[in-house]
Amino acid sequence: MNLTIIFVGVVIVATFTIGLLGIRIARTTSDFFVATRAVGSIWNASAISGEYLSAASFLGIAGLVMKYGAQAMWFPLGYAAGYVTLLLFVAAPLRRFGAYTIPDFAEGRFASRGLRRIAALMVLVIGWFYLVPQMKGAGVTLELLAGAPYWFGVVMVGVLVVAAVAFGGMKGITYVQAFHFWTKLVAISFPALVLIIALGWSSGDRTPFAEGLPTFPDDTEVTFARDTRLEVPTPITVALDGTEISWTAGEIEVREGSQVLFSAGDVAPVAASIGAMDGTSWTVPFPEGERYGLLGAVSLLIATVLGTMGLPHILVRFYTNRDAPSARRTAVVILGFIGVFYLFPWIFGVLGRVWVPELYVTGDTDTVVLALPRLLDGTLGNFITALVAAGAFSAFISTSSGLLISVAGALSHDLYAQFVRPEASASRRLWYFRFGAVIGGAVAVGLGLLARPFDINVLVGWAFAIAASAFCPLLILGIWWRRLATRGAALGMLVGGAAATAAILTTMLGDVHGLLGALLAQPAIVTVPLAFGVMIVFSLWDRPPRHADRLLLRMHLPERAAERLRIGR
């Protein structure tokens, strides 16, 4: 039996086994949403890192490094730095407040059920945007390694995650995600080190930092899975479906199913969706020749740094700690975990430029982590390929599980149970949660089937932009500014979230250039200040909630004093 299938099967069986153990220990609403607030710092940090290090981290970062070089450094930098802001401003006060979800915080802080509805809708938008790249990652992984159709991987991961979430809840998923973090760390670090030793950084005069464009190390046959427009930088002679033809410099169209044989030393054509980059351009952190490259990088950093605190599946984890000091320790440990992890995708991206330039041709640079191990021969090559595939599936499953808990919680706990069936018993609410997981998973699978044309990390970056625009202002001002009024909070969330979502949808559906195109593609630099401004202006014209002082005291007093304040309210 194929070793890759065995390793992926082990991950799937372990996920089911650990998740199903949650059935025995998840019996209450508290178990399902916050794991009874009894998770230690190291275990919780492993679980949070497991769901945070998604397909964007395991596959997407390496693909972006291969495609854009130093310009891709802003993604992991922002992802890691986001936890610094989370640690400084949100983690401990949020834990002291004591609630299950962000919509719980919104309603509790402002005594507004309408604000809960708005927050729950934002959770759904962010959650589904973030689930889509996980589904895409599963589809392309099984397509490349097992020859399965793209839809099969999307559907399989969707079914697996729905089953694990619906029956295990937060307590079961905590153990699943901790297991997946260590699986991912081993699956990306060990292969990266083996590949450096086996392949080296260069082949003759071919290095990732050479001034020219990438060239093929050997005769290479490329099969096109879809119609592709190529940029041919220099005239070359290729064999197209067995017939030798010459390509002149410029753009050409290659049809789906075509097989093209390139000769060793040929300069690799590049899919038009990528654009050719020589070694000099590849090593600079801002796009040369792009007028708004710096603006895009700054906006991306704003989205990733501030968006981290607005991710609903991450924030709910800080409710699972025993107390506020434990929440702070968890955030610090996470910084160490993800900092170590992000060292290794760069190795894959750099090696990919030298050893698998055919990914430039097809535009599938997202698969470089999966493609490189296949260059190794024999048992070692099979083992490394299988290990990387197992790590990739861990990335899809762990992140998808945390996201689906948030989506299912928003559908069941924050919307249906609160506004349609408020009289429902605790056992009935658990069934609402399970049904919400099925609905949320079905929507994610449907969207994932449509996401094939988009880069994994671009999709994730958009989710961060919406989170930063909707929830970051609500949390920062709601925790640290007593004057924040209900109307201001609601309008700020709506304006920021809607503006970011509209900009992203315009980018996906249209082709806008210039300054407007740059702002639509990376909207956080506009939408985050806009949301803050709306909240502040409308709050200054209004009155804060009567209980605002008491709630701020609860969030900033020591843990025991905050508990006494909650009991005496």
For this entry, give a set of tags:
569 residues; mainly alpha; Sodium/glucose cotransporter; 4-stranded antiparallel beta sheet; 3-stranded antiparallel beta sheet; 5% strand
Q: What does this protein structure show overall?
A:
It is built from 24 helices and 7 strands. The chain is mainly alpha-helical and 569 residues long. The strands form 2 sheets. It has a 4-stranded antiparallel sheet. Strands 5-2-7 form a 3-stranded antiparallel sheet. A hairpin with a 2-residue loop joins strand 3 (236-240) and strand 4 (243-247). The model is unreliable at 25-38 (pLDDT under 50).
Strand and helix layout:
Blueprint: H1 3-25, H2 29-34, H3 41-52, H4 55-68, H5 74-89, H6 91-97, H7 102-110, H8 113-146, H9 150-199, E1 220-223, E2 228-232, E3 236-240, E4 243-247, E5 250-254, E6 259-262, E7 270-271, H10 279-282, H11 293-307, H12 312-315, H13 324-341, H14 343-355, H15 358-362, H16 368-371, H17 378-420, H18 426-448, H19 456-480, H20 486-509, H21 514-521, H22 524-540, H23 548-556, H24 559-567
Antiparallel strand pairs: 1-6, 2-5, 2-7, 3-4, 3-6
Helix pairs in contact: 1-9, 1-17, 3-9, 3-13, 3-17, 4-14, 4-17, 5-11, 5-13, 6-13, 6-23, 7-8, 8-9, 8-17, 8-18, 8-19, 8-20, 9-14, 9-17, 9-18, 11-19, 11-22, 17-18, 19-20, 19-22, 20-21, 20-22, 23-24
